Amino acid sequence: MAAMKLLSLALLGTTAFAKVYFEETFDSTWEKRWTPSTWKKSEGTAGEFKLTAGKFFGDEEKNKGIQTGPDARFYAISSKLPEPIADTTGKDLVLQFSVKMEEKIDCGGGYIKLLPTSSDMKGFGGETPYSIMFGPDICGYSTKRVHVIFDYKGKQLLTKKTIPCETDELTHVYTLIVKPDNTYQVLIDNEEKAAGKLEEDWDFLEPRTIPDPKATKPDDWDEREYIPDETDVKPAGWDDIKPEIVDESAKKPEDWDDADDGEWEAPLIPNPEYKGEWRQKEKKNPDYKGIWKAPEIDNPKYVPDEHLYVRKDIGYVGFELWQVKSGTIFDNILFTDDIAYAKKFAEDTWGKLKEAEKKAFDKFDEEKKANEEAERKKLEEEAKAAGEEEDGEEEEHDHEDHVHDEL
Q1: Pair 35, 58: CB distance under 8 Å
Q2: Cβ(17)–Cβ(6) under 8 Å?
Q3: Class for domain 7-207+306-365, per CATH?
Q4: How far is it, in rounded angstroms, from Cα 80 to Cα 75?
Q5: Is 306 helix (H, G, I), strand (E, B) or coil?
Q6: Rounded to whole angstroms, how far apart are CA atoms 139 and 213?
Q7: Nearest 5 degrees, angle CA 311-CA 317-CA 323?
Q8: Which of 106, 186, 190 is nearest to 141 (CA)?
Q9: Alpha-carbon distance 341 to 338, whole Å?
Q10: Could you state, in order of their start, the residue ranges of all structural domains in the chain?
Q11: How far apart are CA 19 and CA 6, in angstroms?
Q12: Rounded Cα–Cα distance for residues 175 and 357 (Å)
């Protein structure tokens, strides 16, 4: 049975304990735990979620998740944590879920959010404050990335890294890990796709150093990488060569009348000797020092923060999306402080079914292509038959007109 649970798990081989704050694998009782938002409903642009394994799957029951529909809609739904999290100080934070864009989405979000207990989840929408937003976003050719956005002192900060997301129709698992040493990892299908330091990859803080505002470029600083080559001199007579010359092979037309047409002149043609405007060659500047930059100094506004990783007051998980093409299935949501458990959870859900899902997709894709080809041939035959029928009607009409003329 699918479950949402809060429990302590003893780590194998240790005496430490870790917590699973939220776990959802979606079964027939899912609607008891999830609340649709009223956001956009009055405008008629709110979509709905339904429980389904989709058009292809490894196991119909185990692959069931909530799917968006119809197209060109806003989606918002949330679930309350069994117990709110006041503070993640000293703990790893792991947010993980699976995404299946089986309609091969061309524009739309596929990310999840962690939200504070103070949020108004009845009207949960784009303006609702959140702590973390994480997951894939696709729109056209320019946007195909994994969003990782943290709220920091009221500002939503997007990672400066571009992390590519998966774009096929299969299920993929997205994992965000934030550690107490202020580092992070982004995994897709349990493989690392990005990692680093929070301070370096987000603009949480003012920069550690800044260009010295009092510094000025020295008078003798030479920024010219190339300079004129004094040894290169314009050849004598260069400017005397004209770009066009008279076409000596041209002859005055026999019907040319000087009285009526004026005095005939041979046309001009490009001069093959003309080499264009002369330009002196350049050479490397031996005194080149590069583009001057002010030296860096300590930024007086920089204030270190050892608690960038800390998230406070988390009470909900939710999806708030805009999708031009819907059909995305979300499943196997996990929020924990146990990295090992998250990896095992991914393998026990997505991992055990990925090969079977791929086989089901290949079969589905083959049948889809075969049906499309059959439909194409049917339309061609119908068009051909319609054309032949039209030709027959025209011949009969012409025959009737001929008989009428004879009569």
Answers
A1: no
A2: no
A3: mainly beta
A4: 17
A5: coil
A6: 41
A7: 120
A8: 106
A9: 5
A10: 7-207+306-365
A11: 7
A12: 20
Distance CA 167, CA 272 (A): 57
Total residues belonging to the chain: 407
Cβ-Cβ contacts under 8 Å for 336 (sequence gap 6 or more)? 18, 19, 20, 21, 22, 23, 94, 96, 342
Q: How many CB atoms lie within 10 A of CB 370?
A: 10
Task: Decide if 173 contacts 136 (C-beta within 8 A).
Answer: no
d(CA 287, CA 257): 68
Is residue 108 within 8 A of residue 322, CB to CB? The reply is yes
Q: Percentage of the chain surpassing pLDDT 70?
A: 91
What's the mean pLDDT when you consider all of the chain?
A: 91
pTM for this entry:
0.79
Q: For residue 304, report the phi and psi dihedrals to the nearest 5 degrees.
A: -65, 155
Nearest to 51 by CA among 62, 38, 42: 62
Q: What is the pLDDT of residue 168?
A: 95
* Alpha carbons 76 and 99: distance in angstroms, whole number: 16
Letter for the amino acid at 210?
A: I
The dihedral formed by the CA atoms of 388, 392, 398 and 403, expressed in degrees to the nearest 10: 170
For 373-385, what is the mean pLDDT? 85
- Closest to 133 in 3D by CA, of 101, 159, 160: 159
Alpha-carbon gap, residue 147 to 156, rounded angstroms: 11
What distance in Å separates the CA atoms of residue 52 and residue 74, rounded to the nearest whole number? 19
Task: Report pLDDT digits (tens) over 51-74.
Answer: 999 999 999 999 999 999 999 999
Query: Residue 401 corresponds to which tokens in the numbers above?
Result: 């007109």
Question: What is the spatial distance between Cα 112 and Cα 125, in angstroms, rounded to a whole number?
Answer: 12
pLDDT over 80 (residue 29): yes
Residue 392: which pLDDT band, with cuts at 50, 70 and 90? low
